[in-house]
Amino acid sequence: MEKRTVQLAIEGMTCDHCAVTIERALHDVPGVEHAAKSRSCMRASARG
């Protein structure tokens, strides 16, 4: 199966706690091998 990276625009990610919560939630999605977030850019990415 081909792996790909998805970029997500995130609204309302205003603090580090929000960013960590989003990253943990992405890690819990079946098939996601890597998740990262950028609070300053209001974006997250997931690869799997």
- Lateral strand order in the biggest sheet: 1-3-2
Q: Write down the domain tally.
A: 1
**What shape does the CA trace take?**
elongated
Termini separation comes to 10 Å
SS strand fraction:
25-35%
* Multimer state: single chain
Per DSSP E runs of 2 or more residues, the count of β-strands stands at 3
Could you walk me through the main structural features you see in this protein, from its secondary elements to its overall organization?
The protein has one helix at residues 16-27; strands spanning 5-9, 34-38, 43-47. With 48 residues, it is of the alpha+beta class. The chain has a three-stranded antiparallel beta sheet, with helices on one face. A hairpin with a 4-residue loop joins strand 2 (34-38) and strand 3 (43-47). The radius of gyration is 11 Å and the shape is elongated. It starts with a strand and ends with a strand.
Q: Any chance you could write out the topology, listing elements then pairs?
A:
Blueprint: E1 5-9, H1 16-27, E2 34-38, E3 43-47
Task: Tag the structure with descriptive keywords.
48 residues; Alpha-Beta Plaits; alpha+beta; 25% helix; three-stranded antiparallel sheet
Brief synopsis:
The protein is about 25% helix and about 30% strand.
